[in-house]
Amino acid sequence: MHQATQRTRIQVPSGGCPTGRRRFLTQVTAAAAVSIVPRQVLGGAGHIPPSEKITLAGIGTGGQGLQNLAIFQEFPEIQIVAVCDVNRESGGYLSWNWTQGKEQRVAGREPARRQVEGGYAQQKRSGTYRGCKAYADYRQLLAEEDVDAVMVATPDHTHAVITMAALKRGKHVYCEKPLTWSVYEARQVTEAARKAKVATQLGNQGQASQEARLVCEMIWDGAIGPVREVQVWSPARFWAWPTWEGRPKETPPVPDGLDWDLWLGPAPERPYHPAYHPWTWRNWWEFGTGLLGDLGCHKLSTVF
Predict the structure, then answer these.
(1) What is the pLDDT of residue 290?
(2) What pTM does this model have?
(3) Do you find a cis peptide bond into 178, omega within 30 degrees of 0?
(4) Angle at CA of residue 190, ends 185 and 191, nearest 5°
(5) 96: β partners
(6) What is the chain written as a DSSP string?
(7) How many other β-carbons are positioned within 10 Å of the β-carbon of residue 131?
(8) Cα 168 to Cα 8, 165, 194, 197, 290, distances in angstroms
(9) DSSP collapsed to 3 states, 191-212
């Protein structure tokens, strides 16, 4: 139910004239009929008023984060109000297109803000929309934005600290796989989610595929007999990662727009190098979990 923007002026009767009182009650009834109308009258069939939408903030807007935000934006019951990334904007991010393979793209908080506002602008008669704020620090976002939920798609080593911060504020969380960088962190996050009593989901798109569901049903129904051993294969160079023998010795300047200290987060201090950012951080134990944490989440989860 909504209050109409146009108000009906009511003439308050003077004295105790019964006719005046009846006229007053008639006007009040008419005003109520105008000011309280069904939502479909104001916004059309299927319209969801802003007060009933789930407000969402996207934290981590690299290649995967931008893809996630685009999908979230397809749901009319969700309103993306803020994005956050330690990098303002740059190229070289890897984005996976399941029909065409991997591709590089520009990403960061400003491309994310433009993507979100551009998507909502297409739904407006005016063709414009300005309602998505961009942050560099997730802590500032959580302190200033009273959102219902967050999407976490940062490098593996920061999943736990960001997710824990959101859970402690009572936010629902959608976190990309792997859930955390270590088993200990996963146990801590699981317990925090249980105490927070909020909705949580792990972003494991492979597990949601029809192929994965079919394999599970075949095993559950005994279609292939008892399963005693499972072998999972994946090309070791799936992402064609470059390799290094030890840490890079060069110390190039930090690119403009990148807050390297925020990117490191809870990881040990080390100088910036393009060997770590924007997407090759999976090569390094301090930041990623390698091929097992990247693709093992997709391929091994069906077994369990």
Answers:
(1) 83
(2) 0.81
(3) yes
(4) 100
(5) 102
(6) -EE-SSPPP--PPPTT-HHHHHHHHHHHHHHHHHHEE-HHHHH-TT---GGGSEEEEEE--SHHHHHHHHHHTT-TTEEEEEEE-SB-SEEEEEEEETTTEEEEEEESHHHHHHHHHHHHHTTSSSS-----EEES-HHHHHHH---SEEEE-S-GGGHHHHHHHHHHTT-EEEEESSS-SSHHHHHHHHHHHHHHT--EEEE-GGGGSHHHHHHHHHHHTTTT-----------TTTT-----SSS----PPPPTTB-HHHHHTTSPP----TTTTTTGGGGSTTT--HHIIIIIHHHHHTT-
(7) 14
(8) 46, 5, 11, 11, 29
(9) HHHHHHCCCEEEECHHHHCHHH
Burial of 262 (0-12, 13-18, 19+ CB in 10 A): middle
Question: Which residue shows structure tokens 């934290």?
Answer: 59
Q: Identify the structural domains of the chain with CATH numbers, from first to last.
A: 50-208 (3.40.50.720), 210-301 (no CATH)
Average pLDDT of the segment spanning 16-42: 42
- Six-digit token string for 304: 């369990």
CB-based contacts of 31: which residues, under 8 Å, 6+ apart?
Answer: 7, 8, 10
The token pair at 145 is 């934005």
Band the pLDDT of 293: cuts 50, 70, 90.
confident
Q: Write the pLDDT tens digit of every residue in 260-276.
A: 999 999 999 999 999 99
Range of 5-19, 59-73, 201-215, 239-253 with top mean pLDDT: 59-73
